[in-house]
Amino acid sequence: MTETLLSMVDVEVSIPTANGDVVPLQGVDLDVRAGETVGLVGESGSGKSMTLRAALRLLPERAAVSRGDVRWRGRSVLRMEAADLRRYRGAEVAMIFQDPVAALNPMLTVERQIVDTYLANREGDATAAREAAHAALLGLDIPDPAGVLGRYPHQLSGGMAQRVNIAMALVCEPDLLLADEPTTGLDVTTQLQVLDLLERRVRDEHAALLFISHDLRVVARLCERIGVMYAGRVVEFGTREQITQDPRHPYTRALLSCADLAPGRRPGFIRGQVPSLTIRHELCPFRARCDHVHDACERLPPPRRETTDGHLAACHLEVVPHG
Amino acid sequence: MTAEATPRSGLAGNRRRRWLRPPVVILAVLVLLAVIGPAIVPHDPVRPDPMNALQPPSWQHWFGTDNLGFDVFSRVIYATRVDFSLALIAVLIGGGIGSVLGALAAYRGGWLDTVLLRVVEVVQSFPVFLFGIALFAAFGDGQRNLVIVIAAVNLPLYLRQIRSALLPLRTAEFVQAARCAGLGPTGVVVRHLLPNARGQILSLFALTCAYAIQIIAGLSFIGLGIEPPFPEWGSMINAGASYIIQGIWWPSVFPGLAIVLSVYALSGLTSERLSSGPGGAV
Amino acid sequence: MSENDTVPSVPSRAPGRSGHRVIAAWGRFLIGRLALLVLVLLAVSLLTFGVTRATGTPLYVAVGQQATQEMIDARAEALGLDLPLWQQYSNYLQNLLRGNLGQSRRTFTPVSQDIAERLPATAELVTFSILVSLLWALPLGIRAARKPKGFAARIGEGLAQFGVSVPGFWLGLLLIFAFYYLLGLFPAPLGRLGNVPRPPFVTGFFTVDALLAGQVSTFLTALWYLALPAITLSFTSAPPIFRITRSSVSGALRSDFVAAARSYGIAHRLVMRRHVLRNAAPPVMNLVAMTFGYLIGGAVLVEVVFSWPGIGLYAVRAMDFSDYDAVLGVVLLSAVIYVAIYFVVDLVQYLLDPRLREG
User: Which residues pair with A69 in a beta bridge?
Assistant: First the structure.
């Protein structure tokens, strides 16, 4: 049994505002094991990015984890001291952000930023850092590493910048890579290139990957296990095959039909709107839009049903009927 | 058994409380004084009484008397009208012209826009008081020049504000949509753009009036603008300046407090601040 | 620039852009900015020239009551007033460029000399007042950005509001009243050194000159006299600096690249230095430089209150004497200094921010 690296248990994140609390995460459960690729799928506002932030304890101002725990190799991340947290970030878990150019300091060269990251996370001096930076760029199929190293972020194209970011993350030699919709801002051909690179490098480094996206097709292609998020919680979790071929939650079903992945169905759409995150939902947050809703849904919170092979779904229904 | 959190709002309560905030109340009092003040002052503000000079505050003279025997309290009240009305007129003139220019710049665009912006940028940052001094050197003293200085200072501010409010006229999609629906450019301005900018324009108005009062006071302090014996806060402070060093504080302190109160009342009306440039205020 | 480098070598330092292209970009920028500077100064000189012509009394004043038309004409010719306007302006400009600002009617010395004598006083006052402002505006601004509801934020905003609402000249008087009259902690507003003899001239800054000459007590006295006026003036200059620092640092703190740096476990201090402050600094430095330029002309009122012998006080005294040449001389000099600083600031920003070099 491979070791569980990251484990998030019933994580709730709340942000106090002048008009009451906003609760972007309402009870997230997920885990990532060594060397595996896990995907997290959901609409905007479902809490995907916030989940990654919580994993690194990089929440926005005034946001805090109000319930649950985040554990790395069994130790609680939320209770780490500052020094441990710094070591955890980068050397153990590294993140790639959505807007590649914005994630780089506009005043510093690429080389400077990669070198800083190296020095913060690995043993070695500046020369070793520069060599590593050069090698990292080479490893991402960048034809002119020396030239790119000397450039400033605004001089890079989106695809190139994202490769730089991936290089920077990999230079830390993390055990887990978090990717926050890394290809969403890029054009389609560049997307495929970057995804391929990411997949290959993660495999080469034997690192785990937690990849989030709103695009189920990308996630299904890349990830061995997939989690589906809705309104701040994970409503279904399972292997790629389980999710795409035997979805146990109506929302997953709906997503599949929208992405045209459901076997033999016409592409569909989901009526209604994403529920507000200023309310803590005790009952199922999807019940207003669900095609299969019934009275149990209005009375009791949905149970987390788990099958023996690790397929989890938070729904009252045992089997989702086709229809 | 849903846990629904009720959002805290209460628009009705908020609205009522907004109109009773200290700055609003103070401003109302000041405007009242500006209007009826001269009629209700206890002592004649322009009749000197040398026998009574430099008396400290007392029941007879709430703010004391100055070096010529004037009752400071009456003069402070009287000056309210002077400062406020001058400020208002000057701001309206400068703001009016500036707004028209800004609208032109926004609508026409091109080189006119660039030129105006550049000119405004440099003019705006030039020290106000030196500009005032030069103007007075050229054209003599008096209220008219005071108004010119303040209008000149306000022009760039309103130009930029109106220009940024009307800029969408050229490019924004919702404008094009409105045009497709048959609305002419004036209609777009009146129905869409101005309402959006209304809050900012009102804020600007309040703040520039406050700034104008400070400029009037400052210029009068160095002897330009309103001349004694006509009551004005700045010139009153000047008259009392040589005495405060000897411990006679009331001729200078009270007019200053009036200025601070006016500025506080006017700028308290808004949540925006007017100090983006190097000069800040005076 | 993107040659395919098939042999993976390890460079000691990554090469930048090709040399000549960089210089060409700089050149274009410099020329553009210089052109603007020249244009502005021309405009100001035109204005002041207009003023000298508008204040047309000199002729009659010079000639006196018994003037006949001939005497007036002769005088006009002597003064060059019969020449066409553009030629008068050209002469005027030439005079300016030679540093001839006319003669003061009050002191009977050349205006340029008067100004040169007094400029260091204003410069010293402005320098120290900016130092005082930075002393509290910077740290409070940074703190306020990190903790928007904290103590520092509240004090900073309070002081800023105070500085903007309270007239500088009145505040100066209050400070004199409190700290000189009531508490006796600071000297009377009698200028820069009171009765103490000046230190030997090097820079014109009494503080610096005293230190250079080893006269510690003179140095302290100069500081003592500088204190109140500098503090008064700092209330004018500090609020915008505080607010810009706060908003600039706040923006940098919220940026993606700071989040990214923290996510890589980079130490907090390094994050602040390399990422936050380096990105937040340019607008602040910009403002500080502009404030300096502005205050050279804008310290007038404070100089009057404290009888500080700078160019502002000189201009006001000239006003009272209808000494137009002197007033215009001060206005012109302030404009030149302000625009020059504006130009230097632009240049420095261009050098420091890699994004601007793209043209």
Answer: A9
From A49-53, A66-70, C39-43, C228-232, the region with the lowest mean pLDDT: C39-43
Separation of alpha carbons A170 and A207, rounded Å: 9
The string of pLDDT tens digits covering residues B124-143 is 767 778 878 877 777 766 77
Residues 80-109 of A with CB under 8 A from B: none
Q: Which residues of C touch A95 (CB under 8 A)?
A: 260, 263
C-alpha R_g of chain C: 26
- pTM to 2 decimal places: 0.81
User: Token pair 């007094």 is at which residue?
Assistant: C118
Which of B1, B2, B7 faces A278 most closely, judged by CB atoms? B7
Q: Rounded to a whole number, what is the distance in Å from the CA of B89 to chain A's nearest CA?
A: 40
The C-alpha atoms of residue B27 and residue B18 are separated, in whole angstroms, by 14
Nearest residue on chain A to B6, judged by CA atoms?
Answer: A20
Checking if the pLDDT of C50 tops 90, the result is: no
Q: Is C212 in the B-facing interface, judged by CB distances under 8 Å? A: no
Cβ-count burial C277-316 (b if 16+ within 10 Å, e if not):
ebbbbbebebbbbbbbbbbbbbbbbbbbbbebbbbbbbbb
Chain A residues whose CB is inside 8 A of the B9 CB are 19
**Which DSSP category does A301 fall into?**
P
Q: Model ipTM?
A: 0.84
pLDDT in tens, C79-90: 666 667 777 777
Nearest-Cα distance to chain A for B2, in Å, is 6
Q: Read off the tokens for C245.
A: 């620092």
Measure the CA–CA gap between C299 and C224, rounded to whole angstroms: 19
Residue B223: per-residue pLDDT: 82
Report which of residues B25 and A271 the model is more confident about: B25
